[in-house]
Amino acid sequence: MQIEQLNSEQFIQLVHNNQSEEWVEGNYSFSPLRSGIHIHGGTLYARKNMRSSQLVDSYINFIILLEGTLRFSINQDNYTIPANNGSIVMVSIQEESLFSRHLIEGDYCQKVAIKGIEKWLYDYYPGKNYPTIFEDTVRIWQMDETIRTLSKQFLALPENSIYGQLCQEANALQLLASLWQIFESQIKNTSHKNTLINPAKSFIQQINQVFTPNIQVSDLATRLNISERTLQRRVKAHFGLCISEWLKHKKMKYALHALKHSNLSIGEISYACGYKHVSNFTQAFKQYFHYTPTEVKY
């Protein structure tokens, strides 16, 4: 089965700009809100087999699956989740992981995804000490009518006014609060095992601590005090990627962030990523994201 490969950032931009008709059809919207909550949702019909991937840091995401089938993978673990009259999926990733969305031609799903609980979580639990969240990477619950109603309200386009935007913010906060209440009710009377990352630092923490955008495989192995073969094996075991693929993801992730959020020039970012010529950096960046650094920077 032929599968089209896209970077997640590229796919999101295509959907956001209504340029994704080659891969999917339907209505989908992304709404970063003033409260710090990120919410997106809609209905997508897959026109071809596709996978979009990206390295993600630790995060918590609630997905309300109203109809259809949800397919994704985290590192080497694959998940296929049918709506079954409405499902709530909680994804809790503790360490940097490769997250991939999968679409199969002919599939469709209607969903709402919401992130942002960390803003409150870390205020109430300083030091990120809330181990029960990460006991299970993926949890699935049956949807109740409150969650269904709130999700449907988000899918109805808000009025283009201050009142409409405030209503959307209020709806998102109520939805996130209701989802968190479901999580707390599920764990209230259960015993928990300690799933906190080892204080001695996990391998993923160690590799990210020594990573720099221009680092080579040999230097990375040296800094970790392991052989290149061991480095290859351990990265493959966690992410399902070879080390060169992991480095490319990391380098492009750094480049995109620097282009969007720093005052560094394209030439300076190119040099920081280990490229001797800006043209080579531009070519690699466009191959990865399907748009140029200039389109991002300016």
From TrEMBL:
Species the sequence originates in: Pelistega indica
Entry GO MF terms: DNA-binding transcription factor activity; sequence-specific DNA binding
Source organism phylogeny: Bacteria, Pseudomonadati, Pseudomonadota, Betaproteobacteria, Burkholderiales
Pfam families, per the entry: HTH_18
Superkingdom of the source species: Bacteria
Domain HTH araC/xylS-type: 201-298
InterPro entries from the UniProt entry: Homeodomain-like_sf, HTH_AraC
Protein name: AraC family transcriptional regulator
Cited SUPFAM superfamilies: Homeodomain-like
Record Gene3D superfamilies: Homeodomain-like (1.10.10.60)
